Amino acid sequence: MKSKRINEFLICITLLCFQQIIYSQVSKPEKRIYLIDVTASMEGKGIVNTPDIFNEVKENLQKTVELIQDKSTEVVFIPFTSKPHTRKSFTIERLNEIKEYISKLKVEKGDTNIVDAWREGVEEIDPSKVNYLFLLTDGLHNTGPEKEQLFEYFKNWSDFSFNKYYFAFYVMLTPYAKELDIATEIDKSNQLWMIESMDVNVSFISAGFKLRTNITNSKNVKISFRSNNLKVFSSDLDVKFRLEDNPYYRIKSYKNNLKNEQSVLVELEELMPLLNTPIETDIILSIEFDKAKHPLLFFTPEKVGIEVVNKGVRTMYFKEK
């Protein structure tokens, strides 16, 4: 009988998991949607003694679109009174036409139906683009659906815009437009802000919604930003970062390179041995700055997700007989 020889060999496979950081830089084209109150109060007419601001608002809007650099940016205008009026869409390539359209806007008869104007604006959202929705008004909702419907729209906005490039701004052009209930609902919503100004030349600082890093190779996460106004990076912008509560990681330090490289380097530190942490963990990084000092500056988004991967060099042994 032939003797069986048992060959025993050892196979060692070393799996190397390299650091991977996904910057998710925003490469989508931009779309801006302007919902413009054209009721008589914008010219100081009507029952309430409001100031005549209409020409100034139009001039500010013209200056704002002049500063849009990407010629492919789509700009949509929807005037409204008791109901939304005919929408008009342009690309910035047609800048002269846009400015002419704005200059020819006129106030019209009717009350202020913010609910239906908002609904119309949301319907313009394009998932293939970075969307900025602005509602400009000098007054309060006083006709059409009940005001509570507007609160529902604000509540739904957080879910609707979650992890999407949908950002909205409720622009109160005068103190007459300010209402505590509306301000409260806006404060509770994500990716929805209130602006108290006739100036709508807003500066955006954008980043990707989600990054991915392998903490076993490097504890540093680089977050790159871009802006429609590069001057904000050279200003005295003091940005702070806060990691939302989680049992695994904290921020050890961060280096602000916004002025020179438009980026921030965040150093993470584990709260327990890596052997006890999950292989993959999602954490949320909140971006904070002095909003009172920079009232027309917005980080879009204000929260960045980081998928922390805990995979280092792993060795597997196979034994064959």
Automatic annotation (TrEMBL):
SUPFAM superfamilies: vWA-like. It holds the Pfam family Lipoprotein_7. InterPro entries: Lipoprotein_7, vWFA_dom_sf. It comes from the Bacteria. This is von Willebrand factor type A domain. It comes from Myroides guanonis. The lineage of its organism: Bacteria, Pseudomonadati, Bacteroidota, Flavobacteriia, Flavobacteriales.
